[in-house]
Amino acid sequence: MVLILSFSHFLKKLLLRSIPSKHKKAHNRQLHAALKKKVTSLPSKRNKETLPQALQPINKEQQNALLLIVHHDTKGHDLTAPEIVSGKIGEKINFRFKAFDNYNLIKIKGFTRSFTTHYALLTLVYLKKNAGSIWIISRDFDQRTLLCKPKVITGKIGDTFQVYSPSFQNYHLVSVKGQVKGEFSAFSSQTVLYYRKNTWLSVKNSRVLLKILRSPNCFDLPDGNLLKVVLPAGTVWRTFTVVRAPHNKIWYCLGGALWVAFDEQKMAFVNQDSYFLNFESAAKKRYSFKKTNTKAVIAFVPGKQAAIFEQPFGKTVTFLKDGKKVSVTKKTVFENLTWYYLNDYGWIQESYISLKEG
């Protein structure tokens, strides 16, 4: 017993010489606890005769070397309690490297295959695995357009994160889809921040029909850019969105980036059911077209999309971007307005298309 305690005390002092001072106290406690556990587990002389051979006390001739194994992260923090492996000088050391969830072993200090000295220190350094990226996307809630380039935040698995919403001039945050705080995981994810213009006091879906009395000004957005688009008197337009703006101004979206401010001098509401009954019967009698085969380009607002209709003044079926090349296969004049049929898409007003002659 005395021999082992003296050896343990001697080993403790020698091992701590190689440990940096900032970690010495922690390792002192760990080593003391580990050695105490090893020593106190030994049997007394009184019970020596009744113990199996495997539990006989250690003596200097049987085991004369100890290896202390510590597991650190890159910041020097212990990932688990230190281990002690004992044996005889010259013997091979039998142990396995421990695996930790979300960590990779990146460095080994003091590695040896066998006991070469009475004492040794083996330090295993682990690095946290990189987590999946979190993409931060800021969108206009009503137009679904990006307000800035998507940003990405990265970290290590298990680290905490928090998403802070950026500020945009004339916009306010209305909703969030995805996590705004939590812990990084192995999987990538995205958080979408939805904003609305400050001048859009309320936004609703709309299904009302507007009959044009006098051609109004058309814009790409409420209070946006003026478009060179003419809505002929007598035509009827389906609306899709209605926006209430300051000063009791009401805006209607006629499809895509085509907006008009309601003006009772220039437009009027139409009863939807009665109009479509009359429209469908009239369309069957008057709806005719001329075949053509012409190349064309969508000529709308740069960066915006023009609405394509199932039939003149009918339902919107899709949207095509400004500058897209198309093929025109039909032409018709309906309600005093010329329409072109785009192969594979649908009908579009002549104001939104540029024909390539020849």
Structural notes for this entry:
With 358 residues, the protein is mostly beta strands. It has four domains: 2-44 and 56-128, Ubiquitin-like (UB roll) (Roll), CATH 3.10.20.320; 134-197, Putative peptidoglycan bound protein (lpxtg motif) (Ubiquitin-like (UB roll)), CATH 3.10.20.320; 202-273; 287-356, SH3 type barrels (Roll), CATH 2.30.30. The protein is built from three helices and 26 strands. The protein has helices at 2-17, 21-40, 272-286, and strands spanning 65-73, 83-87, 103-109, 119-128, 134-140, 151-153, 160-162, 171-177, 181-183, 189-197, 202-205, 209-212, 218-219, 226-227, 236-238, 241-245, 249-253, 259-261, 267-270, 290-298, 305-309, 316-321, 325-334, 337-342, 346-349, 353-356. The strands form eight sheets. A five-stranded antiparallel sheet has the order 25-24-23-20-26, with no helix packed on it. A hairpin with a 3-residue loop joins strand 24 and strand 25. The longest helix has 20 residues, at 21-40. It is elongated, with a radius of gyration of 39 Å. Residues 1-12, 37-56 and 279-285 have low confidence and may be disordered.
Topology:
Elements: H1 2-17, H2 21-40, E1 65-73, E2 83-87, E3 103-109, E4 119-128, E5 134-140, E6 151-153, E7 160-162, E8 171-177, E9 181-183, E10 189-197, E11 202-205, E12 209-212, E13 218-219, E14 226-227, E15 236-238, E16 241-245, E17 249-253, E18 259-261, E19 267-270, H3 272-286, E20 290-298, E21 305-309, E22 316-321, E23 325-334, E24 337-342, E25 346-349, E26 353-356
Parallel strand pairs: 1-4, 5-10
Antiparallel strand pairs: 1-2, 3-4, 5-6, 7-9, 8-10, 11-16, 12-15, 12-19, 13-14, 16-17, 17-18, 20-23, 20-26, 21-22, 23-24, 24-25
